[in-house]
Amino acid sequence: MMLKQIEIRNFRGIAFLSLAFRQVSLLIGENAWGKSSLLDALTLMMSPAAESFRLTETDFFRTQDDKPAGACLIELTFGPDSPAGKLPAAIAALLPAAPGARGLRFSFSARRTTQGISQDFSFPDYPHLTQPVVSQLIHALRVLCPVLRLRDARFSSPEVMASTAEGSRQTGEVLMAGTEQQNTLQGEDVLQQALTLLCRLSGHYFHIRAGGALSELPVSEEKNDLLWQQLNELNRKLAKTARPERAPVLRALLMLLARPPFAGTLPDEASPLILFEDPETRLHPMMLSMIWQFLALLPAQKVVTTNSSDLVSMVPLESVYRLDRYQQITRCWHIPDEGMSHDELRKVTFHIQVSRPSALFARCWLLVEGETEVWLINELARQTGFSLASEGIRVVEFAQSGLKPLLRFAAHMGIRWHVLTDGDEAGAKYAAIATSHLTEKQTERHHLTRFPAADIEHYFYRNGFAEVYRQAAQLPEHGPGGMNRVITRAIQHSSKPSLAIAVANEVAERGSQSIPLLLRKMMGRVRGLARGRFG
Known about the structure:
Radius of gyration: 28 Å
Low-confidence stretches: 154-168, 174-184, 186-191, 208-219
Oligomer: single chain
GO molecular function, one term: endonuclease activity
InterPro entries: DUF2813, P-loop_NTPase, TOPRIM_OLD
Protein name: Putative OLD family ATP-dependent endonuclease
Keywords: Endonuclease, Hydrolase, Nuclease
Domain OLD protein-like TOPRIM: 360-424
Number of domains: 3
């Protein structure tokens, strides 16, 4: 069983959010999308410690006039983790009939009244269930799909940290006993030391949230490097072991993480939901990779929030979700099932996720044909004091991957785009592709710019920068030679990117007013797109 979807209305910082989960869901977005509210909602619904939770007026979303909403709703939908799967027997036995195709819905609703706040847990598709059965179902769900919220250890109480140490020690003993018969994973001191490492790291770097005062469990600096080496060794041993042999080990390691907030052990059919909150906060990218390599092996559904481009590059592209706030609604963008072909996914995965993962955080892509345009536009923006990064703009060349996959991906992910093409035959084909991807609300004027010349070199030559190319071609300023010959010779004596930098330097000498009007208008439109205008 796994969590399929969550819908939130008027809970804390979220007015509305609907999010469909995968086995791994990595959530990225700007600061205001409602990350903490989403994680709190999941914790409220599925944490065993949430039974006594009572909403207060501050838990209701506040409207633009700073008034709390009258009602809030959190609804989770559960389903089998495979098309042919079934719900666990402990849950199915309590239901009068099997859930429909959309799954088992579990809701929490609250309403502000003159007498205070009323709240209720329910199963909307089974309105006639008695309260004792509802309570049994809730307990079964929380046992079979518990939330394990890993976050910065500085947000854990001393009591919880002590509980973690004892629970980890006991679970480590169970794990070692269970692996004594496993020849592949018998290891001597390395496995035992790595288990000790995991206990320490779970207390020092990340921890399961259980509330309380701020504190942390110190780890001596001299042992830190050794501990990370041991975790790396554990990852290596687990990764090279056949799945049937490593399954009990991973299950026991999952128990190690789950032990502190739960009494006893997890049932065999349990499918925990791990919430990993901003893991990059205290981790070097190399350490982050080690932690994720370990977590990725655990038999659990995972929801991760991050601002790390390194972590974005470690998960399948289909697992990346972009969230933003638009008119008080939190929107979720991701690649739908069968939304892109395998070939398109391969191209975008390499070109964006592997080669330039930070582009996934951009609000708008300026798509250009090649390296020359990337150099020149970035330099021109810098010369004019226009920070592309601060505006959420990323210049991306598309010649290697093709334009169509990038445009399709941008549409799925809510990334606005503008295409800059040459004026030659190839540029005309790119322009046609861009035009074909415009929606009814988008116009060619705001999303497409074409050079009125064969390429960017010919365009700048015609717009007052001929001497730059003549100097690069080692020709006198007013000497013989047509435009094509000068540009060809300049490229032979230098390179296209070097010529782009030379043009940018000349702009710096003359001032930003020397930038051709076409490019100035284009940059204004791209900035407008990044700020949410022009469809």
